[in-house]
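Example (one chain per record):
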Amino acid sequence: SISAAAEEFKSQSSRLDILMNNAGIMATPLAETEEGYESQFGTNHMGHALFTKLLMPTLLKTAEEEGSDVRIVNLTSEGHNLAPRPQGILFDEAELKKQGPWTRYGQSKLANILFTKELASRYPSITSVAIHPGVILTDLYASNQRSNVLLKYGVMLLGPLFMADIPTGALNQLWAATGKKTEVVTGNYYTPVGASSKGSKWAQNKNLAQELWAWTEKEFASKGYS
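Predicted structure:
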């Protein structure tokens, strides 16, 4: 579990310089996490937010040390533009579950950007950024290929021509994690490689970011993570 993973890390190290929230799923069939969240939102946002919350004391402690440069890198996507219209974030789980897989994915990726902006605002001693890795040929498309024959063969035939390979896909997050502190600006959203982007209108909405943060913290508190 996320809690167990955080505890395992803390049992082995008292220092954490770079946290890269990279795990995720994309446009999967409708499903729920054990906690009842729509699976993409639960995995891509709630999971990363909880992991970050549990490791935050270690990150902040490290940031206090001389010469430190602590960073949180959250992987998002240009797919955040697919978030539900007109709200951007549907806090009503029943309503979210009525949306299509790509819309649900868009919400989870928008949440990554909004969460990053709140991290930057609340923890100025840490550099927090959101990055889009690019369109990469990975197993992330597996669930879509199983349900969509056209997509399956499209990825097989055209993927190698129009999609980047995995090493290329890692470049933006590596830059965000190790680039010069003067170039990696906290709270920013970057497309490959190191190109600052404003993102969608929702991604620039400070009130929505604050609302998402408050809602997320309330959900954590209801499950014993205060």
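Caption: Confidence is low (pLDDT under 50) at residues 151-159.
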